[in-house]
Request: fold
Amino acid sequence: MVEPLEDLFTEQVATWARLKRGVDGLVHAQTRAVRIDWFDVFVRHIPHRVGSTTAAVDRESIAKRPCFLCKDNLDPEERGITFNADYTIYFNPFPIVDRHLTIVHREHGLQHIAGEFGTMLDLAASMSGYFVIYNGPECGASAPDHMHFQAGSRALFPIEKDTANIAGVKVPNYARNVFLFRGSERAQLISRIYRAIELLSEKTGKRPEPLINIAVFHDRGQWTVYLFPRGKHRPAVFHTGELTVSPASIDLSGIFVVPLEKDFQRITGEHIAAIFREVTLPDAAFNRVAAQLESET
Ligand SMILES: [Zn+2]
Reply:
């Protein structure tokens, strides 16, 4: 899959002006590392992300706008590669990372993970060097009305290095609460993830789907899955206007997007740690679910 993607990238950058602008914008994006305890988060100033960061995702706003993932509304130059019976892979014209992809279901229908996690594993397994992410409909998906994943180059994917030596389902002292799963058995991994999601639904009362972000990659025959249980969508600093940030899977994986220059200058590791703690599931509920998952393995 990687080779056809490289060919598509070359063709699309040459023919699709919106993607070319986004790729150029990413080249000029400044990135700086901020230290939080024992790990780095990479703060990235990307002005072209301001629309996604501030997107209105309430039901009424979504119902009013044309869906930008439906085939009829794509730019005429936009081309994709089909993946399994249901999905098409496109380049994302507002990239956060190199080779940023949007993987779109052919039918317009609500963002949901039930029945779709296996596709995430298949995508990761067929795209060596990429991570694949899922943002829940109330956790950063700017098209909560149209099922999609994203993917991008793992050249910068900080959480992979942070967790390289962690064996359990929890990452200690990590500011954000995240469940970690590794495995080479597809069916077993799928049932473990759905069990975790079911437990989160029980603890948080959110059905059919708790607030979650997911990131997956595949390397040397094994998948690594990060499941970020969320306590809330956006941090208080977003609503007060103090910082224009709205973390989703990529931010939680260690690339923190700031569209505004003034925020890029002033944001600190303390700010980011506080935002991570605020938007991921609070410790008490997280630890209860982690204990249950550990007891079942
Ligand atoms: Zn749609």
Remarks:
- Residues 19 and 93 are 4 Å apart (CA to CA).
- The first helix runs from residue 2 to 15.
- The first strand starts at residue 30 and ends at 36.
- The mean pLDDT is 96.
